Each structure stands twice: as structure tokens, then as C-alpha cells.
């Protein structure tokens, strides 16, 4: 698999997750909050690893269920930008986190 293919895979999974989160009824999105935050932590930590501009104390906001899709979209976009600018992106943890989240969504 080429590096571009890996980015395409991450981007595809990212938008599948975001679309799914944005289409879930709020009660189901609320039930998935812990799974969303687990993936969001991976995205934040992997972005921090690639981009020294991300503060060490950067954290995740405490959002209502209707904001979860937007949070994942922003974090995923930030990771994609940082990874594409990096000479050594590690795609696997991000892709794994997104696939795991998608499969966990109701």
C-alpha cells in the first residue's frame, strides 16, 4: 500500500464516522460518547506526536452528543494535515481507532 492509499483509507473512515455520528439520534450518539472520546484521544495524541505546535496540555472539550461528529471531523482533519506534512506519519493507530469507533457505533 502506498502512503497516499493510507491517507485515502483514513479520510474515507473519518468521513464515514462523521456522517454516522451526525445522523444518529441524540440518544444513540450519547450512548457512544465514551467510544467517540477514545478515538478522539488517539487522534489528538497522534497529531501532537507529528505537530510540535499542538500544546502538550491540549485537551478535548466536553461536548453534548450533537457536537461529537464535528469534534471528530476537526481532529481528523488536523491529523491528516499534520500527517501529510510529516516524513514519518504512523497511519495505523489512527485508522484502527476510526474503524473501531465506526464498528462500535449503534
Protein described:
It is a single chain. This protein is mainly α. It has one domain. Helices cover 73% and strands 0% of the residues. It has five helices and no strands. The chain has helices at residues 3-23, 26-31, 33-50, 68-85, 91-104. Helix 1 runs antiparallel to helix 4, helix 1 runs parallel beside helix 5 and helix 3 packs antiparallel against helix 5 (91-104). The protein is globular and about 40 Å long. It starts with a helix and ends with a helix. The model has no long low-confidence stretch (mean pLDDT 94).
Short description:
With 106 residues, the protein is mostly helical.
List the helices and strands and how they pair.
Layout: H1 3-23, H2 26-31, H3 33-50, H4 68-85, H5 91-104
Helix pairs in contact: 1-4, 1-5, 3-4, 3-5
Spatial separation of the terminal alpha carbons: 30 Å
Pick out the low-confidence regions.
none
Given the structure, what is the number of helices?
A: 5
Average of per-residue pLDDT values: 94
Q: Proportion of β residues?
A: under 5%
Overall outline: globular
Number of domains: 1
Attribute tags:
0% strand, mainly alpha, 106 residues
Amino acid at each position: 500500500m502506498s502512503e497516499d492509499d493510507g491517507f485515502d483509507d483514513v479520510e474515507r473512515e473519518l468521513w464515514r464516522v462523521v456522517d454516522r455520528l451526525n445522523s444518529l439520534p441524540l440518544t444513540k450518539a450519547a450512548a457512544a460518547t465514551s467510544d467517540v472520546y477514545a478515538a478522539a484521544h488517539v487522534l489528538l495524541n497522534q497529531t501532537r506526536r507529528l505537530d510540535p505546535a499542538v500544546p502538550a496540555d491540549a485537551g478535548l472539550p466536553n461536548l453534548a452528543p450533537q457536537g461529537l461528529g464535528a469534534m471528530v471531523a476537526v481532529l481528523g482533519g488536523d491529523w491528516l494535515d499534520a500527517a501529510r506534512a510529516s516524513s514519518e506519519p504512523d497511519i495505523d493507530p489512527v485508522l484502527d481507532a476510526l474503524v473501531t469507533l465506526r464498528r462500535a457505533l449503534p
